[in-house]
Structures are given as C-alpha cells and as structure tokens.
Amino acid sequence: MVIFIAILVLGFLILVHELGHFMVAKMVGIQVDEFSIGFGPKLFGYQKRKDTTLYTIRLLPLGGYVRMAGENPEDEDEDFVNGFNDKPLKHRFAVISAGSIMNFLVAILLIVITYGVIGIPIASNSNVIGEVVQGSPAMAAGLQSGDRIISINDVATENWEDVSGNIRKNGGQELKLVVERDNERHLFFVKPKYDPQFEIYQIGITQSIIWQRQGFFQAIRLGLNQSLQFSRLVIESLAGLIAGKYSTNDVAGPVGITVAIGEAAKGGIGYLMIFAAVLGINLAIINLLPIPALDGSKLIFLTIEGLRGKPVDPEKENFIHLIGFALLMVFFILITYNDIARIINGG
User: Fold this and answer.
1) Considering the entire predicted model, what is its pTM?
2) Which of these, 210, 212, 208, lies nearest to 115 by C-alpha position?
3) What CATH superfamily is the domain 125-207?
4) I need a surface site. Which of 57, 122, 138, 305 has the fewest CB within 10 A?
C-alpha cells in the first residue's frame, strides 16, 4: 500500500512538472512529439487523431519528459515547421522554466487547499495520547495512541498540562496510570526515562493533533508564507550539502522518499498533502540547479545564447548533458544504497 501511495504522489508531481513544459510548448506553437511519464520500455501509448503528440506511460516511474521536435542535434536534418530551436529565445526559456514554476504553483495550491478544507495541525490540550514513541517506556508498558489518561498516581488529569505536569513532578518514580480505552478503564505502570537533551523525565508519549480549518483568505496567506518557508529550508539544505555541512548520508533517494511518504500517509490526508507540497518544492528547486541534464543547466545555455547572440554548439551541449546525466545516475545509485542501508540498520 505504501509503495502504491508513493507511486501516486511521485507520479502526480512528475505529471505536474512535465505538464508545465507541455502546456507552454503548446502555447508558443512548438510541435510536441511525445509526452511521457516514466522512462524505459513503453507500457501504454495513446495518440489522438490529427495530433502529433504521443502520450505514453513507461516502466520506470522515476521521472518523465516532453520530447519536442527540433530539440536534439539529430533533428537538424529534418524539416520541422514548429521546432523547439526555431522558436525565439524567450519562448524556449519559458518552456524550460515552466516545469519548476508549475511545481511551485501546485505546491502552494496543495497547502492552501489543506489549510482551507482540512485545517492546520495544532497540538490539542486534551488528555488523549497522540503517538507513543517507538522503544519508549510507554510502549513497553502497553500504552497506545488514542488512550485517554484519566489519572496519574491517583491524581486526576483533565488535560495535557495535567498529564505532563504530573509526569515531571514525579521525576523518575514509577507511575500508576489509569487509562480509558474503548470505553473501558485499564491500569498501567510506567517508569519514566531521563532525557538528557531536555533534562526531564519522559515516558514517550505525544499530544494528540487536531486540525483547525482556516478561512479562505487566511488559508491563501498562510499557504504562500509556508511555501516560502519550505523553499528557504530547501535552499539552505542544498547550500549546506554543497558547503560540506551535510553528507550524502543525509540525502534521501527514492527508497527513503517512499518510506517518508508512507509515514506521512499514516498521519492522514492532510499530512500527505503537505508532504507532497514539500516534495514538489524540492523538485522545482533541484531542477533549477545549474547541473547538466537538469532544467537549470538548459536555462544557463539559453542565457549564454542570449548574451553571445548565438547558441552553443548543440553537440557540445548534448555531450555536457550526457556527462551530467551519467553523474546523476551514479549519485542516484549512491543515495539509494544509503536509503537501503539506513532501513536495514533501523534508521
């Protein structure tokens, strides 16, 4: 189920990105030969009558592409009425940048819809357990998410402040908890564990979360603000990776992203939509990096063309993109290996 949800989320983000390229290409009159989701062998293909575009779904759902007439050097010998390289520089620039722009816009839309329809997740002050931390004293004792803590050491706990206050007050002493579960009361004994980071005793439970729906204009304002914050965090993380602050061990590949999507899905549709928005922003920014084979590199070549008044030799440009693609594949294999190693080691 997790893999299915991950494929849907990643497929949606890839579709959005490629749809950006596709729509702008069509708008400026470029002939699009193929619109593909995925790479590798073709699983499904469809082409309308009197339409030059072949729509395909391919085996590997790790990307997609929009193949435009006249885009590659080998197309030069063919006669295209509306080839990519025959269009003005501003049109080509718009087509290449449209994928990332589309990801940004859809990410903002996802956040706005989440805040306006589902709400913003905020911590509840109720005495209901939200989550039980893996490997914690609470888990060892048998406490579960959704349990309502009625009392601790015979002292009533009507809200979360009472719960956390009673746990802190008793220090490392064993606690007697009366818990309501499925309209029945149960007794549990839990011995708190000292957390040196926060310098307090904890049993490993978190507050329950409620979703507070926002008004239309407030949802838009918060959605825009949140999107900018997510973008800043992505840029800062990339800068830290380049500066050596982080290593490739801190980067998640397809396997790690699949696991993360599964964790987000456990929290409900709201968390999944927000996580999809964050992934979309990541995809948009990474694609704009000046790395060969990515959109950012193509935009750099178009900028050089604008400055010097003539395009870079297509064969040289394609060679650079080919080398970049090979390096990206090596990096892709490395982070996938790291993902699998983290899962095996329990990370």
Assistant:
1) 0.79
2) 212
3) PDZ domain (2.30.42.10)
4) 122
Q: Spell out the residues 6+ positions from residue 346 whose beta carbon is closer than 8 angstroms to its own.
A: none
Q: Active-site positions? A: 18
As given in the structure block, the two tokens for residue 210 are: 């409620």
Q: What is the 3-state secondary structure (H, E, C) of the chain?
A: CHHHHHHHHHHHHHHHHHHHHHHHHHHCCCCEEEEEEEEEEEEEEECCCCCCCEEEEEEEEEEEEEEECCCCHHHCCCCCCCCHHHCCHHHHHHHHHHHHHHHHHHHHHHHHHHHHHHCEEEECCCCEEEEECCCCHHHHHCCCCCCEEEEECCEECCCHHHHHHHHHHCCCCCEEEEEEECCEEEEEEECCEEECCCCEEECCEEECEEEECCCHHHHHHHHHHHHHHHHHHHHHHHHHHHHCCCCHHHCCCHHHHHHHHHHHHHCCHHHHHHHHHHHHHHHHHHHCCCCCCCHHHHHHHHHHHHHHCCCCCHHHHHHHHHHHHHHHHHHHHHHHHHHHHHHHCCC
Q: pLDDT per residue over 237-274, tens digit each?
A: 777 777 767 665 666 656 666 667 777 777 788 889 99
Task: Give dist(CA 193, CA 310) in Å, integer.
Answer: 68
Angle formed by the axes of helices 216-243 and 89-113, nearest 10°: 120
Mean pLDDT of 9-21: 90
224 band by pLDDT with thresholds 50, 70 and 90: very high
Structure tokens at 311: 């395009």
Of the candidates 89, 140, 146, the residue with the CA atom closest to the CA atom of residue 307: 89
Whether 53 contacts 47, CB under 8 Å: yes
Alpha-carbon distances of 285 from 206, 266, 272, rounded to whole Å: 33, 27, 20
Amino acid at 216: F
Fill in the amino acid letter for 300. Answer: I
Separation CA 235–CA 224 (nearest Å): 17
pLDDT at 246: 63
